[in-house]
């Protein structure tokens, strides 16, 4: 099923999106975090209310306010690792084939059609990163890679917007990844039962209609199963945790000269079976 968060008559609701994306039906739960934590989403989905045409509601990010910082994978596609090391070897070159983990503060995720904030007072190197994001559905501890699919609630798209000069200017990437308006998410969550595990989905990004990124989520260096096994060997991950799995080649810093974003640019991130997340830089 496709799940969305939306505004209707001034109220924030969770709903089921029809297969063709034309109508939404509200669910009796306060927000998507609560739906996930209930462990009972299929029964609750069976209580969906009356249909409303999608054009009469305003989509929000499916999880507008994650309960914890998003967990992110860096340099998790081989071609992106190479382009990033070409841009700044000191900041991005990897000496060992280990996963790069970092986190990203998401005070409020940017909705579909919402604005990426350019923060021109802080950065001259604003960049995009189309990513498949995994949302956990259960408390995860000591998960084996082969069982990782059982812990996934669903999948969405995030754009891991990054201020490259802030990211590389500090030893840690946290600040340059966490500015307000830096995490577009959506347009929906597709529940895990609809996507074969591990997901092998076409992923792409366009800027002003020009294709910049094109890859397949099957090409991850560290698979979702490996990541869950590694992290949960030492950390307990809670339901609702969002894990951004990394971005392929074709980000702005990978071009020579680099192609950074500016106000007015339109970024579209697409993942097969989930949809397109379209945002404008403001
Ligand atoms: Mg990223």
In summary, what is this structure?
By secondary structure, the chain is α+β, with helices and mostly antiparallel strands. 16% of the residues lie in helices and 32% in strands.
Give the overall form.
Answer: globular
- Largest sheet descriptor: 11 strands, mixed
Query: Could you estimate the helical fraction of the residues in percent?
Result: 10-25%
Count the beta strands: 18
Reading the helices and strands in chain order gives EEEHHEEEHHEEEEEEHHEEEHEEE
Specify Rg, calculated over alpha carbons.
Answer: 18 Å
Percent strand: 25-35%
Q: Tell me the structural class.
A: alpha+beta
What is bound: which ligands? magnesium ion
Report the total helices: 7
Low-confidence stretches: none
The overall pLDDT average reads: 97
Separation of termini? 32 Å
Task: Provide key terms for this protein.
single chain, 282 residues, alpha+beta, eleven-stranded mixed sheet, five-stranded mixed sheet, 7 helices, 16% helix, 32% strand, binds magnesium ion
Describe this structure in words.
- The chain is α+β, with helices and mostly antiparallel strands and 282 residues long.
- 16% of the residues lie in helices and 32% in strands.
- It is built from 7 helices and 18 strands.
- The chain has helices spanning 32-38, 41-45, 78-87, 89-92, 164-169, 174-177, 224-232, and strands spanning 2-8, 11-17, 23-26, 52-53, 58-60, 70-74, 100-104, 115-116, 126-127, 130-136, 152-159, 162-163, 185-191, 202-207, 210-216, 242-244, 266-271, 275-281.
- The strands form 3 sheets. Strands 1, 2, 3, 4, 5, 6, 7, 10, 11, 13 and 16 form an 11-stranded mixed sheet that branches. It has a 5-stranded mixed sheet with strand order 8-18-17-14-15, with no helix packed on it.
- The two termini are 32 Å apart.
- 46% of the residues are buried.
- The mean pLDDT is 97.
- The structure holds magnesium ion.
- Residues 72, 129, 131, 160, 244, 246-247 line the site of magnesium ion.
